[in-house]
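Please review the protein record below. Tell me whether the encoded fold seems credible here:
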Amino acid sequence: MTFIINNWSTIIISLVLLAVVVFIVVKLVRDKKKGKSCSSCGGSCGGCPGASMCHHSHNHKD
């Protein structure tokens, strides 16, 4: 009990940081499942070396 009393501020800050990290990871996973990307390509696939790996519906030329 003394440990908790002596370190309560560190424990609270650690729990808040853990919650933020979990929120970020969950958001990234949900965005990935929805097809959103966190890359900064801007949607211009013409000069992107990874164009075949993302934006599958945009890679087909009509």
Summary: The mean pLDDT is 79. DSSP finds two helices and no strands in the chain. The two ends are 69 Å apart (CA to CA).
